[in-house]
Amino acid sequence: MKLFRTSSLLAAAALAFGALTMANPVMAAEAGPTPERQNWSFAGPFGQFDRAQLQRGFFVYREVCQNCHSLSRVAFRNLSEKGGPEFSESQIKALAAEYPIKDFNDAGEPIERPGRPADYFPKRYPNDDAAKAAQGAVPPDLSVMAKARSYSRGFPLFLLDMLPGMAYQEHGVDYIYALLAKGYTKADDEKWNAYFPGHTIAMAKPMGDGRVDYTDGSPKTLDQYTRDVSAFLMWAAEPKLEERKKTGLRVMLFLLVFAGLLYFTKKKVWADAH
Amino acid sequence: MSGPSTYVPKSALGRWFESRLPVMGLVHSSFIAYPTPRNLNYFWTFGAILSFMLGAQIVTGIVLAMHYTPHTAFAFASVEHIMRDVNWGWFLRYAHANGASMFFVAVYIHMFRGLYYGSYKAPREVLWILGVIIFLLMMATAFMGYVLPWGQMSFWGAKVITSLFSAIPFVGDSITTLLWGGFTVDNPTLNRFFSLHYLLPFMIAGVVVLHVWALHVVGQNNPAGVEIKNVQRDAVPFTPYATIKDSFAVVVFTIVFCWFIFYVPNYLGHSDNYIEANPLVTPSHIVPEWYFLPFYAILRAIPSKLGGVLAMFGSIAILAFLPWLDTSKVRSGAFRPVFKVLFWVFVVVCCGLGYLGAMPAEGGYVIASRILTLLYFLFFLSLPFIGWFETTKPVPATIADAVLAKSGGSVALAGAAHEKP
Ligand code: HEM
């Protein structure tokens, strides 16, 4: 009986596994090399953001990326919320005021006023056509970019990415890092990128060493900038990541204890039946 | 099996109500006194797991619908609003999206269980067919749900699948126009899909009631595939035996479910669905959700569009004919050496089709899809013949004997247990 039970449970697991085998292994066939995995502080079940890194990443975004890209699903107030860069309220007030926001005055006339913490990051271009005319292609909004790109390690390796102990969800940031820090390899062609599908990218290499002034002593290198801005984009795409993982731990502990209690109750109830 | 209830409520109010609407008696006879075979293994807990998942999808779905906007201009933004601004919105959305996948994991295990143990055979044909109907409704529900967040895969998946109907002769184009509410996938499509996505789960719930009713008329099958002959020796009462076992299984399943929600919530999804739908940009590969992949592979394996559509729907419809395709006198696959081998080959074929459904439809993948599609149908078509020539192993006379053979001990009569409250 015991043996039979275990074998049927194993078979159930194999079936479930088999079913999941089919998940999502396709990526653009013409995409470049597979991006390398990086060490992200927010990876894994206990991963959390590095506050200082998010703040630096935001500065990179503001100094460089913002010239072309929007971040329209993020509000200024989000930057001071828990689990994010956690700037102080006064910092956010000052920051928001730097951005002109389109609004209407009491007479109903269109005006531009300084931003407030509740405002969202304004769009860089009024519409896609304007963006395309200026940049040659539409620079995509970066709010969910870190979840909107991925790569597959191919069957059967990609299956490991869902397993406890090996779980990995950071494919999107790996890609962004590879694109910006490792992709521009042809000195004579600034629009050639090894990691961009098709290799011809409308975004010329946006930054190099020394481009942004860090005040906290972190290295002013392309590598460091890219890590920081990628982490910032991960937060922008998943602002509840820390809350999610913290809640997950409590839920899991509860369920494990509950399942244990039920198991022993079940054993006791069934003791006289076989 | 259940018969008229002998249940008598303890309170006077209860007796007054019971003589007017015997609903407590119904609950008592279905979920308390109902005799369940004592030899059920954990595969029999997936019915409870599925009921739990349906409830979870309905609860999370209703709350999501309070914050979601079914309009092409706002749908994607409203889902992001749920993820960012709604209290516990990220949890609801990840629970609902992963819940759909878990629902299908459970239903596939449930169906393969039925297949292996011959649960579709007389007298359970209607029960089985109701299950096939639930499966179809689930597929329709999940397909329409996936369109709602209005990402690139939502849009292009909807486009590919709805276009299939245009292959039907004469009425095809009208059906497609009706589904779209226009001449392409657009706002009217999103509106009707939202409406139907809200409706269908309740239809599923209705069919589930019939499914459970049919189950309680004919009784549960079991690993030995022999009916309950002596309720005292062969069965245990649903409560506490099945209730506690099902509860344990549901909680274990929830642990797996929560692992996905809290730690790998986007693993089962496609990153392209975080790009807002754009009718002018076609993704390089359009892939459906994983649970549709085997059927998608069958669709693409056939060179003609109409042929592909027929094969795909045929691959599901053929399940409804199983009770009559299988001619074996022996119910449980455990005593059928040839069937057992074919069953496992069939499982591998289904997983293989799933893999191929995710691959581009080119070169060797197409050839492999054709071979596996052929094998898929051959499995069903071989069943009548196997039933005729297969030499089966001896089947235990009663469930009690089966338990005895397994445990090697003596069967404690559960009669005493029956009297326990
Ligand atoms: C049989 C049960 C159900 C299944 C299998 C199912 C499946 C799905 C799927 C696959 C999605 C897409 C999730 C995503 O990728 O974001 C979805 C979205 C949605 N569903 Fe359901 N669903 C079910 C029941 C319900 C019910 C009963 C309701 C409402 C009462 C509902 C409301 C919604 C809403 C509002 C969305 C859009 C929000 C979102 O995308 O997260 N669902 N559903």
What does this structure look like?
The complex is a heterodimer of chains A (274) and B (421). Chain A has 274 residues and is mainly alpha-helical. Chain A has a domain at 24-74 and 126-258: Cytochrome c-like domain (Cytochrome Bc1 Complex, Chain D, domain 2, Orthogonal Bundle). Chain A has helices spanning 2-20, 51-63, 89-97, 128-135, 145-148, 171-182, 222-237, 241-270, and strands spanning 100-104, 110-114. A two-stranded antiparallel sheet of chain A has the order 1-2. In chain A, strand 1 (100-104) and strand 2 (110-114) form a beta hairpin. In chain A, helix 2 crosses helix 7 and helix 6 (171-182) packs antiparallel against helix 7 (222-237). By secondary structure, chain B is mostly helical. In chain B, strands 1-2 form a two-stranded antiparallel ribbon. Chain B is globular, with a radius of gyration of 24 Å. Chain B has helices at 12-18, 23-31, 46-67, 75-84, 89-116, 125-147, 152-164, 172-180, 187-218, 231-234, 238-263, 293-301, 305-320, 322-325, 337-357, 363-389, 399-407, 415-419, and strands at residues 35-37, 235-237. Chain B has one domain (33-227, 234-404): Up-down Bundle (Cytochrome Bc1 Complex, Chain C), CATH 1.20.810.10. In chain B, helix 3 packs antiparallel against helix 9 and helix 5 runs antiparallel to helix 6. The interface between A and B is large, with 63 and 70 residues. The complex binds protoporphyrin IX containing FE.
Which key terms come to mind for this protein?
heterodimer; A: 274 residues; mainly alpha; Cytochrome Bc1 Complex, Chain D, domain 2; two-stranded antiparallel ribbon; globular; disordered N terminus; B: 421 residues; Cytochrome Bc1 Complex, Chain C; 18 helices; disordered C terminus; binds protoporphyrin IX containing FE
Which helices and strands occur, and which strands form pairs?
The complex is a heterodimer of chains A (274) and B (421).
Chain A: H1 2-20, H2 51-63, H3 89-97, E1 100-104, E2 110-114, H4 128-135, H5 145-148, H6 171-182, H7 222-237, H8 241-270
Helix pairs in contact in A: 2-7, 6-7
Chain B: H1 12-18, H2 23-31, E1 35-37, H3 46-67, H4 75-84, H5 89-116, H6 125-147, H7 152-164, H8 172-180, H9 187-218, H10 231-234, E2 235-237, H11 238-263, H12 293-301, H13 305-320, H14 322-325, H15 337-357, H16 363-389, H17 399-407, H18 415-419
Antiparallel strand pairs in B: 1-2
Helix pairs in contact in B: 3-5, 3-9, 3-11, 4-5, 5-6, 5-11, 6-7, 6-9, 6-13, 12-13, 12-15, 12-16, 15-16
The structure holds protoporphyrin IX containing FE.
